[in-house]
Amino acid sequence: MAGMPDLSSGDDLRAFVDAAPTPFHAVAELGRRLNAAGFTELAEGDAWTLAPGAGHFVVRHGSLIAFRVGSASPAEAGLRLVGTHTDSPTFRVRPRPDVRQAGYRLVGVEPYGGGLWHTWLDRELTVAGRVVLRGGGTALVRLPGAPLRLPSLAIHLDRSVREGLTLDPQRELVPVWSHDLADADGLAAAVAEAAGVAADDVLAADLVLADTQPAGTAGADGTWVAAPRLDNLASCHAAVTALVAAPAGARTQLLVANDHEEVGSGSMSGARGSFLADVVGRLVALADPGDPQALPRALARSRLVSADMAHAVHPTRSDRHEPAHRPQLGGGPVVKVNANQAYATDAAGSAWFAERCAAASVPVQTFVSRADLPCGSTIGPLTATRLGIPTVDVGAPMLAMHSCRELASAVDVPLVVAALTSCFAD
Question: Could you tell me whether strands 63-68 and 252-258 are parallel, antiparallel, or unpaired per DSSP bridges?
Fold first, then answer.
């Protein structure tokens, strides 16, 4: 088709999402891409030696921080940071997951985050996550195939569904696994087999449900991306692509991808935790040892872009959007503003981001919630509050946020990457 944009970055986004059914898999895929670009992994418990221009990353459970060391000290040049999150709404598997009732085997789960749970019905699902092994080792796991399903109740058995569907998460959102076979092993044995380890060696696990349908294309021209977990894996993908593409410079460039944003960020690896502050503190201390003013000087000269997906205007419910602020799919990154600080953007941050986008020939859109509707939030205000770094909240526009399968535009992928690359390179 004449005039079609290059959609190869959309293909790369789909591959990234397919590789990352859980935050632990997302961190592994981020690490794989960073390794391929010459970044090396550091351990938090080791002493670090850093050289200008070198790229490194460090992992804390389901979170990752990657950075490229600048030629100038952070106290003199500041840092350029992009923040994202690795988690998405899903169902977390209970510690004792095996449930048997009505002649079936089921898997005990509970909702994680604020999902549109009805969209998970009648989909082919699996279990994925991290297992912790005897001796402290870990392994990633994903059950093969599509062994689980949340079946709807037929309309003939509940006509009230015509008035609206209400689901009890304890009784009705429990995925079925198979017939109740008396001699069948439980979920733990299946997970151990998928991980390639002995069942007795698995001491604990962090497991969630995941949609098994691969990310695909949609729309008449094939430019839309239909996939699970776009919120916020699309931002993780854009951020790591931008960091790899950005040229080394005077300022240290840093990507933080936190877990647990969808449940408030209150964990050792979440935005309320110490992970980012710990790493930034080490970077500053190594560059300016013995200077008690180095850290506050570095933070004052830094900028953070909080990258989390944004609401595109809905095709049939545009009334739920503020009339003057209706982002479009394919229209470029969205600056998110909220008068009550659900987003960290202020005029200075918005102007700074707009200038970076102009330098990269990237259009900018704006999102503001209706005054009579509540607003979601991001890691932006949490990180800005904790570290005191000027922050702007942005994101690619999307539809069906928090659905089992969401919708974005491949046209926006290179635009957001270019914008974030420009922010890193500033």
Answer: antiparallel
